[in-house]
Amino acid sequence: MYKCILFDIDGTIIDTEKAVINSLQKLLKLEKGTTYPADELSFALGIPGFVALEKLNILDIDNATKKWNEYLKEFYSDIKVFNGLKEVIEKLYESNVKMGIVTSKTKQELIDDFYPFGLNNYFDYIVCADDTVQHKPEAEPILKCLELTKTIPSETIYIGDSIYDMQCAKNAGIDCALALWGAKNQDLNATIKLNNPKEILNIIKI
User: Fold this and answer.
1) Region label for 96, one of left (φ > 0), alpha (ψ between -120 and 50) or beta (otherwise)
2) What pLDDT shows up at residue 206?
3) Which residue among 7, 9, 31, 33 has its CA within the 20 to 30 Å range from the CA of 131?
4) Residue 35 confidence (pLDDT)
5) Residue extents of the structural domains in the chain
6) Cα angle for residues 28, 66, 161 (degrees, 5° grid)
7) Per-residue pLDDT reduced to its tens digit, 138-176
8) pLDDT tens per residue across span 41-92
9) For residues 7-24, average pLDDT
10) Are 9 and 103 in contact (CB under 8 A)?
11) Alpha helix (H) ranges present in 74-198?
12) pTM
């Protein structure tokens, strides 16, 4: 039985896809004068923003990241918690299940994008992009969180929506659950596939 559940944020707890893609499109239009179709930018979902910008051949990463975060605020109204997630997280918390977050967001992005929903207080363990040298799909983010939670891999599961999440979990030697409500590719190889948030409670027999 799992004693610790680690969560990704984007595409798993909150639906940020539209806001992230639209703000990135605006950035690239202004920076490069090019309109990128949304499907060409979907790779940016689930990895640190600066990594996505590097892949797009942006030279001044720091400045572009600041602009991207500013543009993202214009689309905050499009960000929402997936239906049922708040209730599930509250139930896990009440049941004293260890919960952590492993995200590709930086600490500031976490504060700006996630804290407004008031769910951060349910998580005692948080690993952001600026807490590790390596990032998803490498194992380091999850291994860092395992150090914090003091749980062993066999008692821990990571819930995410992207191939980066699944690979990160497998590289860290823990099970992974694919959140089908946020996954763009529902055929990814995962230990468990979750059709809706309530199924998370079944993982730990609540």
Assistant:
1) left
2) 67
3) 31
4) 93
5) 4-15+79-203, 17-78
6) 75
7) 999 999 999 999 999 999 999 999 999 999 999 999 999
8) 999 998 889 999 999 999 899 999 999 999 999 999 999 999 999 999 999 9
9) 96
10) yes
11) 85-94, 107-113, 140-149, 163-172
12) 0.91
Contact 15, 82 (CB under 8 A): yes
Q: Which CATH number fits domain 4-15+79-203: 3.30.420.40, 3.40.50.1000, 3.30.70.100, 2.40.330.10?
A: 3.40.50.1000
Instruction: Say how far apart CA 190 and CA 168 lie, in whole Å.
Output: 11
| Nearest-angstrom CA–CA distance, 64 and 25 | 12
- Token representation of residue 91: 């139930």
Query: How far is Cα 13 from Cα 182, in angstroms, rounded to an integer?
Result: 9
Place of tokens 């980066």: 164
b/e string for 9-47 if b means 16 or more Cβ within 10 A? bbbbbbbbbebbbbbbbbbbeebeeeeeeeeebeebbbb
Rounded to 10 degrees, what is the CA torsion of 163, 141, 59, 57? -10
Residue 115 exposed, middle or buried by CB count within 10 Å (0-12, 13-18, 19+): exposed
Residue that the structure tokens 């930086």 belong to: 106
